[in-house]
Amino acid sequence: SCLELLAAVPGTESGVYTLDPDGNDGPLEPFPAVCDMTTDGCGWTLFAYAGTINGTKSATTGTCDFLPIFDIWGTYDPNALSSKVAFSRLDLFYGLLEPSMEIMARRTSQPAHLFIWPVADPDAYTGVEGHKWLPEVTYLRMSNDGPDALKTVTNNITVAFGEGDMPRYTGYNWNTPVDENCDNCGRSYDTALNHRSLVYWEIYDCQCTGHCSYTDDQWFHASPMTLTDSTSPDNNVQDVELWLR
Known about the structure:
By secondary structure, the protein is mainly beta. Helices cover 10% and strands 22% of the residues. The protein is built from 5 helices and 11 strands; from the N terminus they run αβββααβββαββββαβ. The strands form 2 sheets. Strands 1, 2, 3, 4, 5, 6, 7, 8 and 11 form a 9-stranded antiparallel sheet that branches. The longest helix is centred in the first third of the chain and has 7 residues, at 2-8. The relative contact order is 0.17.
């Protein structure tokens, strides 16, 4: 991982480096990956990028499975942050997952907005025994003004549409009624936020599921990563970075 690289070579700068997450004896070939060595203590590894949708979500991913964290599609592209190529390859790092690790979401167009949560349950991300939802967590970390302004919240954190309803939608609510699912509901960064303001995606694609009331060209719903009260769906949210540390 990028964190291990930084530990081995202190002072390593952000950039593209060759990683081998399963070690010399593993079947995975080394590959170039993106490392963020500056944000919040450094050592973040890019594992997915919800970039430009090529026609529809299913056309982009080549499958009806396009949850940006849980599903596997595309080829890891070390140039994704500039090329906007979409891929989701957390599978490359399954062997490294531990409960204490964290996942960070950040929009390329709004890099000062950060949303960080603990892995907590590695099986939730690997699909073991049917797991495919965000686990319950004891804290969230977020900032609307860059990594130096990160704050930790611990009160009233709930998983939006959790195990029973996954993988229709998923996300975290903070200090809101359970499963609050609304725009213009009077929330703010300082008091409470629901999943529409954090990181919340749609699975439905008309071609795949027949649920044609949901837009085929929309990765994320509402106003993710704005960390303000969500106002309405935004089909332009096609630049969400997902990092592991």
